[in-house]
Amino acid sequence: MMFKGKGGAMLRTAAVILIGASLAACQSSTDGLNVSQSKTDNSDLEKVTFEELRGYCPKVRLRDGTAYFNTYEGEETSQNVRYQAAITDVSRQCKYENGRLAMTVAVAGRVLLGPKGSSGTIQLPIRVAALKGDTVVYSDIKPYSVEVNTAGATQFIYTDPNIAVDQPDARNIVIFAGFDEGPKKGAATN
Fold first, then answer.
1. How do beta strands 173-179 and 60-61 pair?
2. Read out DSSP for 37-85?
3. CB within 8 A of 108, min separation 6: which ones?
4. Domain extents in the chain
5. Using CA of residue 161, residue 182, residue 82, residue 112, what is the dihedral sign?
6. Dihedral (C-alpha) 38, 44, 46, 48: value to the nearest 10 degrees?
7. What was the pLDDT predicted at 98?
8. What's the CA gap between 125 and 68, in Å, rounded?
9. How far, in Å, CA of 98 to CA of 75, rounded?
10. Bigger pLDDT: 154 or 32?
């Protein structure tokens, strides 16, 4: 429908006003979310502290050479690989409690069978460490069991929920995660 001339401009204006009024009439205070009814009892939820709200949670990093782990049958050659594990992601969660920073670190990855591999349970040596400057304030290494099969890659998620350090006065904590067999057998220790 075309409105031409001076009368057409008035009709177009009237049509726009009429459409706008129609749309406004479709809106009512009972449509959508009623705020007074949406209140829930949050008494069972944990309260967020100011420190947590600030959001400082140390980053998790991988050191060079710790993202991959191979096991061999005999000599360390590509033909003798039993299992090859790789860390694909790391994450962390932080909480401030009683003047301490409590952290949970998660390490995700996958394991592939090599030419000499077979289905079964393997142990992955995973270490999580926290450093404040050059000082180690937390370190733990655990063998983590993973059930591998011959149907492609096996995914795993390792979690260390036990990290607790004094509440930092600066953003000076670094978390490292990775594979670590510890000292080599026969190696001298201090």
1. parallel
2. HH----TTSPPPPHHHHHT--PPEE--TT-SEEEEESSSSSGGGEEEEE
3. 87, 88, 89, 90, 91, 155, 156, 157, 158
4. 67-179
5. positive
6. 30
7. 87
8. 11
9. 51
10. 154
Token pair of 160, please? 């260390």
Per residue in 59-89, pLDDT (tens digit) is 999 999 999 999 999 999 999 999 999 999 9
d(Cα 8, Cα 16) in Å, to the nearest integer? 12
Q: What is the pLDDT of residue 183?
A: 72
What the block records as the tokens of 18 is: 């009429």
- The residue to which tokens 């998660």 are assigned: 106
Amino acid at 99: G
Taking the CA atoms of 83, 115, 117 and 78 in sequence, report the sign of the dihedral they define.
Answer: negative
Confidence of residue 190 (pLDDT cuts 50, 70, 90): very low
Picking from 120, 122, 106, 113, the residue whose alpha carbon sits closest to that of residue 175 is 106
Stretch 114-135: mean pLDDT: 93
Distance, CA of 81 to CA of 118 (rounded, Å): 11
Q: pLDDT at position 96, please?
A: 86
CATH of domain 67-179: 2.60.40
Spatial separation of the C-alpha atoms in residues 142 and 108, rounded to whole Å: 15
Q: Which of 64, 60, 68 is nearest to 179 (CA)?
A: 68
